[in-house]
Amino acid sequence: MTAKKMLMIVCDGLSDRPVRELDNKTPLQFAKKPAMDALSRHGVNGTMDVVGPGVIPGSDTAHLALFGYDPYAVYTGRGPLEAAGAGVALDRGDVAFRCNFATVDKNGMITDRRAGRIKSGTDELARAITGMEIDGVEIIFKEGSEHRGVLVLKGKGLDHRVSDIDPHREGRVLESRPLSPKAEKTAKVVNQFVKNSSAILAASRVNMQRVKDGLPPANIILPRGAGSTRALEPLTDRYGITCAAVAGVTLVKGICRIVGMDVPDVAGATGGLDTDYKAKADAALRLLQNHDFVFVNVKAGDIAGHDGDFRMKVRVVESIDMMLGIMLKDMKEDVVVALTCDHSTPVVVKEHSADPVPIAISGGGARVDGVREFDEISCASGALGRMRGMDLMPTMLGMADRARKFGA
What we know:
Layout: E1 5-11, H1 27-30, H2 34-41, E2 43-49, H3 59-66, H4 71-74, H5 79-86, E3 95-104, E4 109-112, H6 122-129, E5 133-134, E6 137-143, E7 148-154, E8 171-172, H7 184-202, H8 205-212, E9 220-227, H9 235-239, E10 243-246, H10 250-258, H11 277-288, E11 293-298, H12 300-306, H13 310-330, E12 335-340, E13 357-362, E14 385-388, H14 392-399
Parallel strand pairs: 1-11, 1-12, 2-14, 10-11
Antiparallel strand pairs: 2-13, 3-4, 3-7, 3-9, 4-8, 5-6, 6-7, 12-13
């Protein structure tokens, strides 16, 4: 029996709830998506609790689960994953944070957690605040995609168990607090870094120009998601497969690198609403030529959900469908294709939710269950039933005739 190749497409935050302006349909139900519907028609469908029933997944814990890892056992915080995505190497004892460039007013109140979704100049801002030393701790700061960044602390006596500076909403900036007596030094260093860097950012050429242009300045760094590095068994060893990924978001690139995937840079894969869908499709097809498993992430649906923009979300669905259509049309062999989401980001909530997400798997002689459309309700009647995110990789391996026998 010939083993099949595998392609997993994760549409970040695309799953939703009924929207009144869309005739009480979800964006997936409302949009025109012939390729997605064809995948459902020719395959097996279901819904998925990515981390667990009633659990609201972060993109970090969700992707760990989708790759078959138990996030409750391996996750310490988002920071190390962001650092890996930004190409910052971590040593044991280092503490890493996920950060936002944000905007504060003269009273120190956060008015925009994403600094107007700043897209340029963050490299210059990062260079201005990296390299400082506080209480014997070296500070490394690296820009990520759009408004995101990574903060890494290197030194003795550090501990990742500290609270976030970021309040996760507009309002007053928080102070980092130690969540363990061993983390007092870390909290002190983080608070001082935010204070020091804010003064530098406020005086930067980039922000003076943004103010002049009527744009929100990126005049504060908001660290959150502290964590320390933890080695994970690579997918190559775990499943005996060669793996590659196509992604634009720093976090997702980081997770893929940590689990041992090849992660080439793809021109036009921005991780934003302006991402090049055709470039992602072409890159995935190239990678399938010499890898057993290829993973593709598209972030745009999550952005539209957070912005509460149902019209944009419909357009994102149709753009992803175009990308999927290119892949299905140009595949040269039988490939097991899974299409799903890492979590729901309903436009009426503007945040992640605990709603299960749709899943469709086709190829490799898959059973066909009669589902005709890919959406949250149609897929729920499929033969896969309601599954966990951690079961997706084993399910794909089984359908691709790559599963290992258990027992004699």
